[in-house]
């Protein structure tokens, strides 16, 4: 892995850029974009929220810090990854993402929740609460 120091962007840390085969992977709140390929994060994370966006999407820029805050406050054990669809169209295609923003919650490696375009935080919270609670009940 190659370390880079990219600026913080709305609560989603951009610490590591992953050089690996195309799979959706990242550490908590990691940025996956330009010059990098998503690797194997679904394998190591019991819960992961993938935020698919593009740099020029204004709605995405406004929503992204709110989603990061929701994860930090209500779902602290859930990892988050930002996927730049402009830089990685193959990752977007592999996960069936055709519009932005698209948020996909994976639990134990399986897609559980998918929300796209007009994403309401209350609706997203409600959709994630039950599987998150069941998965992390004993934690």
Brief digest:
With 139 residues, the protein is an alpha/beta fold. 30% of the residues lie in helices and 24% in strands.
Structure, explained:
With 139 residues, this protein is of the alpha/beta class. The protein has one domain: Glutaredoxin (3-Layer(aba) Sandwich), CATH 3.40.30. 30% of the residues lie in helices and 24% in strands. It has four helices and seven strands. The strands form two sheets. A five-stranded mixed β-sheet has the order 3-5-4-6-7. A two-stranded antiparallel ribbon has the order 1-2. Strand 4, helix 2 and strand 5 form a beta-alpha-beta unit.
Query: What spatial order of strands do you see in the largest sheet?
Result: 3-5-4-6-7
Strand content: 15-25%
Largest sheet composition: 5 strands, mixed
Which fold name corresponds to the CATH topology? Glutaredoxin
Overall average residue pLDDT: 77
Enumerate how many helices there are, as a single number.
4
Shape: globular
- Structural class per helix/strand content? alpha/beta
CATH class: Alpha Beta
Which spans have pLDDT < 50 for at least 5 consecutive residues?
A: 1-8, 10-28, 33-40
- Number of structural units classed as domains: 1
Taking the alpha carbons of the first and last residues, their distance comes to: 30 Å
* Structure summary, number of beta strands: 7
- CATH homologous superfamily descriptor: Glutaredoxin
CATH architectural arrangement: 3-Layer(aba) Sandwich
User: Which radius of gyration do the C-alpha atoms yield?
Assistant: 14 Å
**How are helices and strands ordered from N to C?**
EEEHEHEHEEH
Residue share in helix: 25-40%
